Amino acid sequence: MNRSTLKGLLAGTFKTAEKPLTILAGAAALTAILMSFEFNLLEAHLYDFRMSHGPQPEASKEIALITIDDKTLKALDEFTPLPLDLHARFMEKIGEFKPKGIGYLVDMSRVHQLNPELFIHEWGIRFVNAAHELESKNMPVLMGTPFDVMGEVVPPYPVSALDHSIALIHKDGNVFSQDKVTRRALVRLYDKPVFHTALAEKLGLIARNESPRGTYFVPEVDGHYFFFRYHGSTAVTPKTQAMPYPHYSFIDVLNGKIPAENLAGRILLVGTMAKEDSGDFAGTPYAQNPMANPKLAIHANILDSLIRDNGISLAPAWINSVITFLLTAFVFWWVMFSKPLSGVLVTLGLAGVFLLFAQLLFTSSGIWIRASQPLVGILVGYYLVVPYRLILEYKKRWDYQKRNELLVQVEELKTNFLQLVTHDLKTPVARIQGLAEVLLRRTSDRLDSHEKQTVEHIIDSTDELNRFITSILELNRVESNRIHIQLESKDVNQLVERAIESFQAQCRSCDVRLETELDPLFPIRVDAALTEKVIKNLIDNAIKYSPPGSRILIRTEEKENFVILSVSDEGIGLSQEEKEYLFTRFYRAKNEKTSIVPGTGLGLYLTKYFVELHHGRVEVVSELGKGSTFKICLPIEQPQSIAAGAAERPGLVVRSIRSILSRKGESHV
Ligand code: ADP
């Protein structure tokens, strides 16, 4: 292969691959840009939607909540936090219910602030002793403690003697969405297990130092987090009072009003849930209103997710990049090459399908694919391609317009040229014909038969040429819109008879019989000259394309507001394809029989045009080899516009150009 062939081959390959390569490069560039943005707020909304919709795992039956709620406060005539004596009494009582373990989520430092003396005297000791007794009976107790700038807020003495860990509800305030919604939880802080982990470890439900699914390390806080799963709505609104975990009032436990089996064998989370205390509530994917979801329910979900190891794990960034790239490339390609409506629908459909796929993966396998970049990619991809495509379309249209203008000019030139030529030809042809006729008349007795035949041929050929010139002139008049219809009342039968008269000699020489079945007709308003031309053309064709010895039937009748004239022959007939092009100018069927018959291919074009000037129509029924019937239907009543004599047909030149282009398969000018 020499160098120029290789160069040509490379150029050809590049040309075919140019569009796909541009699309791939565009999609890659857009993906790279999108991956450098986080779209955290959008992602958080999508995350919340996925978390709170679709099938969700059921809340564990192992966990129950004991709430220091408004009912408790009212019954005891107290405010939160309850004084220590009530907590000690609760601790002494709860053993009767034989729970599996107790997570005590009451801020003891606040309890201490209210009544410090209760801690020093009897009640502090009683609380601790009761807890120890529970532990000795295999019912572990873990105190949940708050966390402040100094670190863990350790419970005051003597409660500090009990096991305690930080129980934090992490509101997303600094990173990710920053919308104060709780989506993730600490597993370990400074390498020490926090409340939920410690409780699960204490209860032997998870192995020590085990990291739940989806755990990740945040070096800035030296803590391990995981995105935990919710198990049903946490929102306590007047409408949805029910929480996914069974919950009982503190006071009812204290008064022994709860059937023992309700608490037996369960992990009890004890905490405050008083309506007036905003610290007892937080935002969750179900309700972002900070007063809608009790923190106690969030703690239960974290513990549940930890025990069942069903946290959410984030798909690696490269998967996100690949998905974004594929989706944007698809949108680029589709919007570029499809129809506008399908572009919109497919873009929306693709976004929908992707979201559905992401949702299914999230709910069924707990895999979180970031949806924001692919979604933004789809939409931005669409909005990038649409203007580009518009520019291309405009360019195409502009080219067509230019071509159209050029064609109109050419058409006008051609019309003028034909008019000039045909007009100048008409006179010499008429002179040749006249002279040949004189020659034949004056010298017929002196010419031998061969010479006579030659002169007759001259006359026939000039006749044919004359007909051709007349047709071309007629066409010119039609195309330059110079035909004006002159309506008058006429009996179509009379026009038929006159036309038949003129074909008698031709019929005799071709050995064709002309028969008529003319129903009596009322005169209708037609242009007599044009209608006669139409009739003559149909009869002329029928004679030309019929074999000797055959019959041609001409019928007229009145039917449904139309005068119908039909010319039926037993001639060569027409194929389906021929019928399609029959009324196109210069069209002649391409077969042996037609080729030996002289003709211009203009007769039927003009016929149709003249009939349509009358607001009529032409129909053809034909079978190859069997014959044809051409029917013209002329309306009995002419519409007002043409009855007044105006039969303008503007735009005809452009229409004829269109017909040329459409024949070449370019119909979009
Ligand atoms: P021309 O007869 O001068 O060729 P027309 O426009 O009158 O032009 O007819 C177009 C073509 O239609 C003819 O060339 C012929 O192939 C076909 N055609 C017209 N009339 C008949 C007919 N009665 N039977 C068969 N073919 C016909």
Architecture blueprint of SSEs:
Blueprint: H1 3-35, H2 40-52, E1 63-69, H3 70-76, H4 84-94, E2 101-105, H5 108-114, H6 116-120, H7 122-136, E3 141-145, E4 147-148, E5 151-152, E6 164-166, E7 184-189, E8 192-193, H8 195-202, E9 216-218, E10 223-227, E11 247-249, H9 250-254, H10 260-263, E12 267-273, E13 281-282, E14 293-294, H11 295-308, E15 313-314, H12 317-337, H13 340-365, E16 367-368, H14 372-443, H15 449-479, E17 488-490, H16 492-502, H17 504-510, E18 513-518, E19 524-526, H18 528-544, E20 551-559, E21 562-568, H19 576-581, H20 592-596, H21 603-613, E22 617-623, E23 627-635, H22 640-643, H23 652-663
Parallel strand pairs: 1-11, 1-12, 2-3, 2-12, 3-6, 15-16, 18-20
Antiparallel strand pairs: 4-5, 7-8, 7-10, 9-10, 13-14, 17-19, 20-21, 21-23, 22-23
Helix pairs in contact: 1-12, 1-14, 4-7, 8-11, 12-13, 12-14, 13-14, 14-15, 16-18, 18-21
Residues 537, 541-542, 545, 569, 571-574, 582, 587-589, 594, 599-605, 628 line the site of adenosine-5'-diphosphate.
